Automatic annotation (TrEMBL):
InterPro entries: Metallo-B-lactamas (IPR001279), RibonucZ/Hydroxyglut_hydro (IPR036866), Sec-metab_biosynth-thioest (IPR050662), WH-like_DNA-bd_sf (IPR036388). It comes from Catellatospora methionotrophica. Signal peptide: none annotated. PANTHER family: ENDORIBONUCLEASE LACTB2. This is MBL fold metallo-hydrolase.
Amino acid sequence: MTARLTSELLPAWVTWLRAPNPGPMTLDGTNTWLLDDGTVIDPGPDDPAHLDAIVAAGPVRRILVTHGHHDHVEGVATLAAMTGASVGEAPDWLTVLDTPGHTADSVCFVAERDGRKVVFTGDTILGRGSSVVAWPDGDVGAYLASLDTLTGYPVPGLPGHGPALPNCAVAAAWLRAHRLERLDQVRDAVKQGASTPEDVVDLVYADVDPGIRFAAEWTVRAQLAYLATLSEL
């Protein structure tokens, strides 16, 4: 069954539903966010119980997505058919931030009402851990710039996976420092003789879960591409 969660970080006008699709890439499952004006952010998988829970928590008037990965958008068409909701048009009181990096189409949504402001971060910032830069669509330089943007939002972050974050700006700053540290490690791996992304993963991500090694290789390919643009490789 879909998990319906609560958090003291949520304004009264936000409801949090978690889809039943846990896994190495989705953590506890995809977070679906419902706003009391009928906006749904990231419907998640095309799972009947989850979509029924969204409708029950409705109304559902419009559907938005933070990016095009299937664990966020698979249920869009079915939910739209169930409710007649529009797709892709944000209400005036939501600010859309272009935050490419995880994917080229990644966005975040900033919402402010009744003295409360939150940022829906999608997979740009997760509730725990770090996000994959999904090469070739993802881009490290763009991701660093997006994190710079998000350091300007010291308000709760409501991510695509994992728990709500007390402070989006703090999380963004930590992730940016982590990415720069990883880039240093990749440089060192290349200096040690790593000649392929697989070699770099062996050195830099030696403890990665075998089930998500492919994601580490995506990120390494993106890191190597970024370093090449700096003429460092």
